[in-house]
User: Which sequence fits this backbone?
C-alpha cells in the first residue's frame, strides 16, 4: 500500500511517498537523507517528543514545564503522560534537571524546562 508522508525535518515540507510493504526500497520525493530517514521511521516506528507540565511545590506557579529529552515511541505517549502526572517536585528546580530518569525504560528522561 502506497503511503504519503509530509516531512517535518525542515521548512521545505517534502511530500514523500513509500510502499508500506518495502519502505526502504520504495521511498521517493525526499530532498535530503534526513527526510528519507524520517519517512521510513514514521511509517515503521513513529517517535514523538512530549512537552507537558508537572506539579511543583514551593514555587510561584503550581506547575513547571517539562519535556522529554529525546523521542519516545508514539504508542507510549499516554503512559509517559501518566508518569508525568504522578510526580510532584519541590522547588528549587533548575532548567535541565532530570525529574524522571529513563521513563518507562525508554532511555529518555523527563526534564524541567524552566528554573523555578
Assistant:
Amino acid at each position: 500500500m502506497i503511503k504519503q508522508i509530509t516531512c517535518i525535518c525542515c521548512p521545505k515540507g517534502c511530500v514523500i511517498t513509500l510502499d508500506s510493504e518495502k519502505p526502504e526500497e520504495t521511498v521517493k520525493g525526499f530532498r535530503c537523507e534526513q527526510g528519507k530517514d524520517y519517512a521510513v521511521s514514521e511509517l515503521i516506528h513513529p517517535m514523538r517528543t512530549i512537552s507537558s507540565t508537572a506539579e511543583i511545590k514551593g514555587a510561584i506557579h503550581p506547575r513547571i514545564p517539562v519535556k522529554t529529552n529525546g523521542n519516545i515511541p508514539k504508542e507510549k505517549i499516554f503512559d509517559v503522560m501518566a508518569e508525568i502526572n504522578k510526580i510532584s517536585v519541590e522547588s528549587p528546580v533548575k532548567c535541565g534537571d532530570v525529574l524522571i530518569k529513563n521513563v518507562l525504560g525508554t532511555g529518555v528522561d523527563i526534564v524541567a524546562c524552566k528554573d523555578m
